[in-house]
Design brief:
By secondary structure, this protein is mainly alpha-helical. The chain has one domain. The chain is built from seven helices and three strands; from the N terminus they run H-H-H-H-H-H-E-H-E-E. It has a three-stranded antiparallel sheet, with helices on one face. The chain is elongated. The N terminus is likely disordered.
């Protein structure tokens, strides 16, 4: 009997779960950070690699320092010319990467990027954990917060497999903080 089970198990092809690593690898995190920054829509698209580099943790600290508060700072005269508070300590490099609309509120733009990064990384980690524990064909349902959801999330409905579920926030998300999520569907 044990021999039969061994042969049966060796013949059964297991899915390659290395495609959905948990925890995420460095390349996956970098891709999701770039995706979240692009979805936030507050930086110049052509300068996306520079913004991604600003939001990567330094090797020494493993923490992300606030990109808006890195030296060299803008001078009080520069701040005043853009209509910003002269006492604000704002990185010139970060400010130059923002879209013209985001330059009106650079600190809010930085916060929006951080919230999108947190949502994207958390969602992908959860989906990868689902795939590793329940398999790539685990059904998931898209759920959203009806009060704060954006038009993109209202248009997106349905179920999908955890392995192919879309990254959140959805492209074009205009919510200040994306509260969309995926929920596993366990059929009994």
């Amino acid at each position: 009997m044990l021999g039969f089970l061994r042969r049966l198990l060796t013949r059964t092809k297991q899915p390659d779960l290395s495609l959905w690593p948990y925890p995420l690898g460095e390349a996956d995190e970098r891709h999701l950070v770039a995706y979240a920054i692009k979805v936030a829509g507050v930086t110049m698209p052509a300068r996306l690699p520079d913004v991604v580099q600003m939001f990567q943790p330094s090797a020494a600290s493993e923490r992300v320092a606030s990109p808006a508060r890195r030296e060299p700072f803008m001078t009080p005269d520069d701040l005043e010319s853009f209509g910003l508070n002269k006492r604000l300590k704002l990185s010139a490099a970060f400010f130059l990467l923002l879209t013209p609309e985001a330059k009106n509120g650079p600190i809010e733009a930085e916060r929006k990027i951080v919230r999108h990064i947190v949502a994207a990384l958390g969602n992908r980690r959860d989906l990868n954990r689902l795939v590793q524990t329940l398999g790539p064909k685990q059904a998931v349902e898209f759920i959203r917060d009806e009060e704060t959801c954006c038009p993109q999330s209202r248009a997106f409905v349905g179920k999908s497999w955890a392995a192919v579920a879309p990254d959140l926030p959805l492209p074009g998300c205009s919510a200040e903080m994306c509260l969309c999520d995926h929920r596993a569907i366990i059929e009994v």
